[in-house]
Amino acid sequence: MAGNVWEWCADWFLPKYYRNSPADNPQGPTIGAGRVMRGGSYLCHESYCNRYRVAARTSNTPESSSGKLGFRTIALN
Q: Quick check: 14 and 29 in contact, CB under 8 A?
């Protein structure tokens, strides 16, 4: 999964949120300047993709788009 495109997430991005978030199913902050992107893309450099880890996080504004951004769909039962 990592290394193809950054994955858009619904969470707002706050750099220090996960330091104090719940350990089980954190819902993310309710405010932020950008949305979370995880995983890294084919255009990444190891200095900011953390070696293409799925847990790598960065952000971008919700209206942005690029060939290196994508999303996954899920089915809710």
A: yes
